[in-house]
Amino acid sequence: MSQNILNQFSLKGKVALVTGASYGIGFAIASSLSQAGAKIVFNDVSKENLAKGLAAYKDEGIDAHGYLFDITDEQSVIKGIKQIEQDVGVVDILVNNAGIIQRTPMLETSVEDYRKIIDIDLTGQFIMAKAVLPSMIKKGHGKIINICSMMSELGRETVVGYASAKGGLKMLTKNICSEFGHANIQCNGIGPGYIATPQTAPLREKQADGSRHPFDQFIIAKTPAARWGNAEDLAGAAVFLASDASNFVNGHILYVDGGILAYIGKQP
Ligand code: NAP
Ligand code: GCO
Q: Which ligand 2 atom is at minimum distance from the Cα of 163?
């Protein structure tokens, strides 16, 4: 074997940009990439959360670089990437993590809301990838990791915009693989299952009588691991897809879901 296998997972000397990573899944993924040796850059769309994120990374002993831009605003993304390249270096690893969700029945979902979700959860990822690819191609390597979802494979009531975007994100992943694989760019996805973060907090709220939220009970019954995931459960998959260990893995969505997609669900 040409290289000690563990060295293949090292990210030493690499610059990793994780979008929307002041907290939640993005923060956990950025922390894992830092532990593997990467220099961490992250962005947020709110000044206040960016500052909170910088403090949180500092508390973890991570010297992260934070930038304020909205991933749906192409001009500010291009400006941000230029600034990152000057301040830190060319982005070797892009984790397209930023995203929103809106839970409303389809017939109560306005076209404006639908467009906004597609814009942030899908078009923003296209904009980010388009901004980092030229330098990756010039450098002769690059890793793009799109944070997909169970909703890249399954539908469910009240998340029509989100599921449409995450289904599209799966195909954007395959398309970047197809178009840039020859340039030694690997574009893969991580499909988290149900993870305990602020985004899913409403689905886990204790009921007035102290019982578990019905959706919480539903997910527990649907997950072979019989638990919600933690953001840290995604760390190993992120380091793998960001590292040389996955140089021949491309266009793949790695589901980290405790087995949900394989399981019909516990009989009542
Ligand atoms: P979260 O807690 O809601 O965090 C989302 C992050 O994205 C926040 O930092 C947010 O910043 C940022 N963001 C939103 N819009 C943005 C924009 N236009 N430009 C830049 N940043 C923006 O979400 P999460 O649970 O950590 O999820 C992170 C990713 O994983 C999302 O793509 C989500 O769809 C996906 N995912 C989550 C789960 C889950 O169960 N939690 C499962 C599968 C996939 P602000 O807070 O400042 O708005
Ligand atoms: C929802 C949840 C999910 C998770 C995730 C599952 O309302 O169904 O928020 O969509 O966020 O995407 O993989």
A: 10
DSSP 8-state code for residue 38: P
Tell whether ligand 1 has an atom less than 6 A from the beta carbon of residue 230.
no
Active site residue 162: yes
DSSP-derived 3-state class of residue 99: coil
Ligand nearest to the CA of 222: 2
Q: Name the nearest CA neighbour of 166 among 142, 200, 193, 185.
A: 193
pLDDT digits (tens, 9 = 90+) for 101-140: 999 999 999 999 999 999 999 999 999 999 999 999 999 9
- State whether the beta carbon of 149 lies less than 6 angstroms from ligand 2: yes
Q: What is the pLDDT of residues 193-235, one digit of tens each?
A: 999 999 999 999 999 999 999 999 999 999 999 999 999 999 9
Token readout for 268 is 């009542």
Q: Does residue 161's CB lie within 6 angstroms of at least one atom of ligand 1?
A: no
Catalytic-role residue among 114, 162, 194, 255: 162
Atom of ligand 2 nearest to the CA of 200: 9
Pick the CATH number of 5-197+229-260 from 3.40.1080.10, 3.40.50.720, 3.40.1620.10, 1.10.10.10: 3.40.50.720
Record the pTM.
0.98
Domain boundaries, the chain: 5-197+229-260
CB 26 within 8 A of CB 94: no
- The two tokens of residue 220 are 């527990």
